[in-house]
Amino acid sequence: MKAGIVGLPNVGKSTLFNCLSNAKAQSANYPFCTIEPNVGVVNVPDPRLEALEKIVKPERVVPATVEIVDIAGLVKGASKGEGLGNKFLANIRETDAIIHVLRCFDDNNITHVEGTVDPVRDKEIIDIELQLKDLETVEKRMEKVKRKAQTGDKEGKKEYEILLKIKENIEKSNSVRAIEFTDDERKYVKDYQLLTDKPVLYLCNVDEGSLPDGNKYVEAVKEAIKDENAGMLILAAATEADIMELDTHEERKMFLDDLGLDEPGINKLIRTVYKLLKQQTFFTAGPKEVRAWTIPIGATAPQAAGVIHTDFEKGFIRAEVISYDDYIKFGSEIKVKEAGKMRVEGKEYIVQNGDVMHFRFNV
Q1: Per DSSP, what are the bridge partners of residue 289?
Q2: Three-class secondary structure of residue 211 per DSSP
Q3: pLDDT over threshold 90, residue 202
Q4: By the 8 A CB rule, do 112 and 10 touch?
Q5: Which residue in 53, 128, 202, 352 has its CB near the most CB atoms, within 10 A?
């Protein structure tokens, strides 16, 4: 699962990516300095791992990760191939969620591709380009399905009506994620891989003085996205870069305290993206390692086992499950067992966020 960072040129995408990842994207005050998408694998901050480490004292700790892609800045006309449009849109198609960075700060030293700071206008520029590309995808599909629908084919007729519903909404400047679909319709929509159907988080990039609550630009964005079924986060990318430069935990804490923050905004961003991708964590805990494993929300015990190894899923017998809260409360696996709080679950069990699990299997 991966999320793509998108936005107009010079809004802070590469600065943000540098904070998120050890992969250092070139960050410069001109458009398209990120020509190939930079990919970084980012650890998901999780205090539960630290708590389990203190109890188990393993040889190593392995956090969950999220893949982040920094995509070249887009300009008007991208859907028609302007700038790096075709490359940009193809790169977005390969991601599972979008982090849309909006410039919400004034700085005469950083040029704006549109000449003025207006995050709502910037958002609409990218929305329109993505919608135009989706419209093109939908119209091509409609041409194919129309013949089936005209011959009386029930499936063809049904699909054509869904495509028509999408087309009419896009023509009204609605992104696909804002359209209500039935579960049956959703199966068709998923197959189209439409750009504006991807979950999106609007990241308002503010100046340090606008932390933590935002400014007039942030309020305008909030109003603009209220009906869109999207998330929003306030963060100062330049400040996050300064925090990353500090050497010690103590120095970072003092810096954050001065800003009135309890943790770096980057940590909140990574966790928010993890949720945006509809992912959750279960743990394995033993003397060799404590590890956070990533699974989709709603995954069954065998599916969770399969994330560790495909043989675990094929030969799944049962899962021994301890809730994270019980593990912390009783302080060891042995004490949890003595308290009768370890559960044995079968193939139908839906894994809960934070479960500490051990799998029995036979291949």
Answers
A1: 60
A2: coil
A3: yes
A4: yes
A5: 202
